[in-house]
Amino acid sequence: MNRSKKVSDAVIKRLPRYYRHLSALMESGVERISSKELAARMNITASQVRQDLNNFGGFGHQGYGYNVNILYREIGAILGLGGELPCIMAGAGHLGTAIINYKGFASRGFVIKKIFDIDENIIGKEINGIEIMHIKDMQNYIRDNSVEIAMLCVPHSAANEIVKCAVEAGIKGIWNFSYHDISVPDGVAVVNVHLSDSLMTLSYKINEIKNKGL
Amino acid sequence: MNRSKKVSDAVIKRLPRYYRHLSALMESGVERISSKELAARMNITASQVRQDLNNFGGFGHQGYGYNVNILYREIGAILGLGGELPCIMAGAGHLGTAIINYKGFASRGFVIKKIFDIDENIIGKEINGIEIMHIKDMQNYIRDNSVEIAMLCVPHSAANEIVKCAVEAGIKGIWNFSYHDISVPDGVAVVNVHLSDSLMTLSYKINEIKNKGL
């Protein structure tokens, strides 16, 4: 598998979609699939599928298509999945709680080990069976337990200080919901989630349909 | 403004980011900005900025850059913002509640008018000052109040039926958090939000850094 060339962000963003669709295909007992069929499911072109997967060395065979199980495992490996990725959640508000209660993450290996918050009234309690600890204990916990990912569902005013603590403790990646983009040193990965961007994309699409007079 | 050519999804997805950054620039009192400065803020290239904005007819002037206020308003108009977009929330669980309580949407015009749920224990109560009604009353409410957007934070098992009701009532767009992609007739816009995709993108980036030995 040739991984030396730079893969574009657009391709990287599509990889989880491939992974989701392949997972659903496996659950339906499908063993192989053509680029055309996979493209139709994903609402992209067959040529796009072939181009995307060629970034990682192909995987397909002319006249056969893709072996669903192998492709699923290979894309999983590219995505860094397959083992357990220990996570912590900073912030046990509504959004943090929604994510903690979401069932789909642990099965992908994203296991939330502890929750950290500043609210004394909830310290020691549990959400979805996971203990809430005081935020002041987060840094040691990350260091002592080789936590890879910090999920950040705190107000923006608290985000920078928490990121600094987590980075000093050796965190590998930050999943940031705190609205403003955060900056981290090289060697730490960040994905900023902006729910309002996705809502604005929807209003763009609605507006586009109105302009077309559909 | 030439809006006749097809704008790529990648550009459309960047428009809300431009809008956010321009909003922040306005708040800081910045009146004009070069493509280079705007690009640096957004971590893209100046040439990308110029290309993106050329899709909509440019807006910039050689040697002057962009007028922040005008560009903000123009991109807002392209995004269908500027007026009120009446929304309803289907599902008052943790995620729905987190979104209802989020302060940033109403200022963009996305005003949640009512919340709909199936749980009899919460019907009639309020979240963030917004009344919770029974899901069976959703269809009439959408029709009678020209609701544009239905936000969907319900379990997947309930999603299809709710989408069907909302579409029959004339909904314009669906913001879908119910994990599985939903399908709607032409003339209705959908944005599917997959939080797990964003988390897998993070694990990809972590894995990439590990592979580089940073």
What general form of chain A does the structure show?
globular
Overall average pLDDT of chain A? 90
Number of helices of chain A: 8
By DSSP, the count of extended strands of chain A is 9
Overall structural class of chain A, as computed from helix and strand content, comes to alpha/beta
Oligomer designation: homodimer
Work out the strand percent of chain A: 15-25%
SSE series of chain A: HEHHEHEHEEEHEHEEH
Q: For the largest sheet of chain A, list the strands in their spatial order.
A: 5-6-4-3-7-8-9
Most extensive interface: A-B, 60 and 60 residues
Q: Poorly predicted ranges of chain A (pLDDT <50, ≥5 residues)?
A: none
Distance between the termini of chain A: 46 Å
Largest sheet of chain A, in brief, is: 7 strands, mixed
Query: Roughly how much helix do the residues of chain A carry, as a percent range?
Result: 40-55%
Q: Radius of gyration of chain A, rounded?
A: 20 Å
